[in-house]
Design a protein that fits this description.
The protein is of the alpha/beta class. It has a domain at 1-114 and 602-640: Rossmann fold. The protein is 50% helix and 12% strand. It has 15 helices and 14 strands. A six-stranded antiparallel sheet has the order 2-1-4-5-6-7. A five-stranded parallel sheet has the order 8-12-13-3-14. The longest helix is centred in the middle third of the chain and has 83 residues, at 354-436. The protein is elongated and about 170 Å long.
C-alpha cells in the first residue's frame, strides 16, 4: 500500500489534491502554519483511525471530506472519511471506491461502509492473515488480533515522536498500545508464520479449557473437603424452620446428607394470602363515620336534656308564684281593679300597674299550661335520641369486632409469609450446596477430563516449536540490528561504534557500549534521538519489504530537521544557513533516506514534511512535490 494522492474536499465545493509519487521520496517543504503537520492525522484518519486529531483551525473549518487515493497490490482504491467538525469525535462511517484510476471530482454525498468494515478490508488487502496474539497466562489482557491499525504504528513519525527519547513508535504513549506493539510486532516481522496461526489459536483454546477444568476440580475438592460439617449446619437450619423433622442420628456420609437435604428441597410455600384488605379499609371508614354520628347525637341529647331541666324549673317556680297569688285572692276583690286590695274601698286614684300585673299573671298561667303540654313530647324526643345512640354504639362495636378479626387474619398471613421467607432462604442455601458438591463423592470424571485436555495441549504443542519461533525472532532482530549498527556508523553518531539493537520486551532500542547497555532514554541530545528513530524505522521497513510482510509500504516523517534549529531560531530559515557541521548531519540523514528508498525501489515510499529546503542538492530538489512558501502557498487554498 502506497499513497498516490491526499485529497481534501472543501465545504464550498472545491477539491485540493496533494500528489505523491509511489516508490520514491516525496518532500513537502514550507513555512510554519501551512498545514504540514496535519497530514499525518489526516492520513491516519482516512485509514480507519478511531480518533480525529487534525488540529483546530482553517483545515477543520473549511474541509468537508478527507480522502486518499491508494495503490494496493497493483490496483487502486479511494477511501474517504467525513470531517466530524464541529464535533471532535470521529465518525463511524467511511466511503470506499475500489478499482478506480483517479479520485472523485467532488466530495461523496454519503458514506458507503462502516469504519470497522473499512479496517477489515484494508487489513485483508495488504495481506494480514487471520491471527490471534494471546498474551501470557498471567496477563489479564484479552487476546489481540493484529490488523491495519497495528501495522500503521511503524508508518508514522509525528514531529512530537521523531525525536522523542521516551517512545519509539507512533502513538506508543497511548494506553495499552505498548503491549499491543509487543504482541503484534513478531507477527509483522514474520516470526509467526501464517500456517502456524491456526495451531496457535487451537493451542491457546486448549490451554484455556484445561485451566477451566483444573479450576473446577480444585473447587470441588475444596467444597468436598469441608465434608459433612457444612451439611450438618444446613440440616440444623432446616429443622429450626420446620423443613424437616429433627434427625435422631446425625448423618455420617455424603449420600445420607444428600438424601435428607433433597427431601427438604421438596418443600413448597404455604398459603399466605390475605384477601380482607379492602374490607378492612371499608370497616375502618365506617367506624369513623359512626363515631362522628354518635358525637353529634350525644350533643343533641345533652342539649335536649338541658332544655328539659330548664323547663321543669320554670314550671315549678311559676306554679309556686301563682299559688301564692291565688291563696290571698289578690285579684278577686269585688271592687275591681280600682278598689283597694286590702279594704275593698273605691280608690279615687287606682294603684298604678295593677292591670299590668293581672295581665302578666294571666300570661304566666298560659305559659305554665303550654309548658305542661310540651314536656311529654320533649321526653319522647330524648328517648328516641337515646335509642338511636344505643343502636349506633352497637353497630360500632360489631364493626370493631370484625376489624379485630380481620387484623388477626392479616397477622397470621404475615407470620406465614415470614416463615416462608425463612424457609426459602434455607432452601436456597441447600440448593447452592447440592449444586456445588459433586454428585458422587470421589467422582473421577474431572480427572479424566483433565487427562484428555492435557493430551490435546501436548499434541498441539508438539506440532509447534516455541524454541524455533524464538530463534526465528532473534534471527530477524539480529539482521535488523546489524543494519541499524551499520547506519549508526555511517551517520557518525555519538555512539556510532557501539552495536545498536531493538529490544521488544522494553519496546525501545539499546546501544551496547563497552561499559553497559544504554537505552534510548539515556542517550542524550535530540540529534541522537532523531537518528536512532530514523535508523530503526528504515531498518524495519527494509525488512518488511524484503520479506513481503503485510505492513503498508510507506513511511511518513514529520519535520526531522527540527532538532538542528535552536529554540530561539526561525524554523523557516533556509537550512543552508545552518553551521557547516549541522548542515553535514542534515545532508547525511537525507542521503540515508534516499539510499534506502533507492535500494528498495519501487517497494518503499517515504513522505517528508519539513522546513528544510536543500537548494544546492539536486537529488533533494527533485524529490519536492510541493513548496508551501509565500502568499497563498499552503495545504488549504486561500479561497476556501
Amino acid at each position: 500500500m502506497q499513497i498516490l494522492e491526499i485529497v481534501l474536499y472543501g465545504r464550498k465545493g472545491g477539491k485540493r489534491v496533494v500528489p505523491l509519487r509511489p516508490g520514491a521520496v516525496n518532500i513537502i517543504t514550507g513555512q510554519s502554519h501551512t498545514g504540514k503537520t496535519s497530514l499525518i492525522p489526516i492520513v491516519s484518519y482516512c485509514l480507519g483511525g478511531s480518533s480525529f486529531h487534525v488540529p483546530e483551525g482553517r483545515i477543520v473549518e473549511s474541509v468537508a471530506w478527507f480522502g486518499l487515493l491508494l495503490e494496493v497490490g497493483g490496483g487502486r482504491m479511494f477511501v474517504a472519511r467525513e470531517n466530524p467538525f464541529p464535533a471532535r469525535a470521529s465518525t463511524s462511517t467511511a466511503y470506499v471506491l475500489r478499482g478506480v484510476n483517479e479520485s472523485p471530482a467532488s466530495a461523496p454525498t454519503e458514506a458507503t461502509t462502516s469504519v470497522k468494515a473499512l479496517e477489515d478490508m484494508l487489513s485483508q488487502v495488504i495481506g494480514i492473515a487471520p491471527n490471534l496474539q494471546v498474551p501470557p497466562d498471567e496477563s489479564t489482557r484479552p487476546p489481540l488480533a493484529a490488523n491495519i491499525r497495528h501495522a500503521l504504528f511503524y508508518c508514522f513519525q509525528h514531529q512530537t515522536e521523531i525525536a522523542n527519547n521516551q517512545l519509539l513508535f507512533h502513538r506508543q504513549a497511548a494506553d495499552f498500545l505498548t503491549a499491543a506493539i509487543k504482541e503484534t510486532l513478531p507477527y509483522f516481522l514474520g516470526a509467526i508464520q501464517e500456517q502456524e496461526l491456526a495451531l496457535e489459536e487451537q493451542l491457546s483454546a486448549a490451554r484455556r479449557k484445561l485451566r477451566l477444568i483444573e479450576v473446577q476440580r480444585d473447587e470441588n475438592k475444596q467444597i468436598e473437603g469441608e465434608g459433612v460439617s457444612k451439611a450438618t449446619t444446613l440440616l440444623k437450619e432446616a429443622v429450626a424452620v420446620g423443613l424437616i423433622d429433627e434427625q435422631p442420628d446425625a448423618p455420617t456420609s455424603m449420600s445420607e446428607v444428600r438424601a435428607i437435604l433433597e427431601k427438604a428441597m421438596a418443600w413448597a410455600p404455604g398459603h399466605s394470602v390475605f384477601v380482607g384488605a379492602d374490607e378492612l379499609s371499608q370497616l375502618q371508614e365506617d367506624v369513623a363515620v359512626i363515631k362522628e354520628q354518635r358525637a353529634k347525637l350525644a350533643d343533641t341529647i345533652r342539649a335536649a336534656r338541658t332544655m328539659s331541666g330548664e323547663a321543669q324549673g320554670f314550671v315549678d317556680e311559676a306554679r309556686i308564684q301563682a299559688e301564692r297569688l291565688e291563696s290571698i285572692g289578690l285579684f278577686e276583690a269585688d271592687g275591681g281593679h280600682d278598689s283597694c286590695p286590702m279594704c275593698a274601698q273605691h280608690m279615687a286614684t287606682p294603684v298604678p300597674g295593677a292591670a299590668a300585673i293581672q295581665a302578666s299573671l294571666k300570661e304566666l298561667r298560659h305559659s305554665l299550661s303550654a309548658t305542661e303540654r310540651e314536656r311529654p313530647r320533649l321526653r319522647e324526643y330524648i328517648e328516641e335520641r337515646d335509642h338511636e345512640l344505643q343502636n349506633l354504639t352497637e353497630r360500632q362495636g360489631e364493626k370493631e369486632q370484625t376489624i379485630i378479626a380481620l387484623q388477626n387474619q392479616e397477622e397470621t398471613a404475615q407470620q406465614i409469609r415470614d416463615q416462608n421467607s425463612r424457609r426459602a432462604k434455607v432452601v436456597g442455601r441447600i440448593s447452592l450446596y447440592l449444586e456445588s458438591v459433586p454428585l458422587v463423592p470421589g467422582d473421577d470424571r474431572l480427572d479424566r477430563a483433565i487427562v484428555a485436555a492435557q493430551a490435546e495441549v501436548d499434541q498441539l504443542a508438539a506440532r509447534l516449536d516455541p524454541v524455533q519461533k524464538d530463534q526465528l525472532l532473534k534471527s530477524i532482530l539480529n539482521r535488523i540490528n546489524l543494519k541499524m549498527s551499520e547506519w549508526s556508523r555511517s551517520l557518525e553518531l555519538e555512539f556510532g561504534d557501539a552495536p545498536v539493537r531493538l529490544d521488544l520486551s522494553a519496546v525501545t532500542i539499546f546501544v551496547d557500549t563497552p561499559n553497559r547497555a544504554v537505552p534510548l532514554l539515556l542517550l542524550g541530545s535530540g540529534e541522537n534521538w532523531l537518528a536512532y528513530h530514523l535508523i530503526t524505522h528504515l531498518a524495519l521497513h527494509r525488512h518488511f519489504r524484503q520479506s513481503g510482510r503485510p505492513v503498508p509500504a510507506f513511511l511518513f516523517l514529520d519535520q526531522p530537521t527540527q532538532v538542528y534549529f535552536p529554540p530561539d531560531a526561525d524554523p523557516d530559515k533556509d537550512v543552508d544557513l545552518l553551521d557547516d557541521d549541522d548542515r553535514k548531519k542534515v545532508v547525511r540523514m537525507f542521503k540515508l533516506i534516499f539510499d534506502v528508498v533507492s535500494e528498495l525501489a519501487p517497494d518503499l515510499q517515504i513522505l517528508i514534511t519539513d522546513h528544510a529546503d536543500l537548494k544546492e542538492e539536486p537529488w533533494f530538489q527533485s524529490a519536492i512535490v510541493e513548496k508551501w512558501r509565500g502568499q497563498g502557498k499552503a495545504l488549504i487554498p486561500e479561497d476556501w
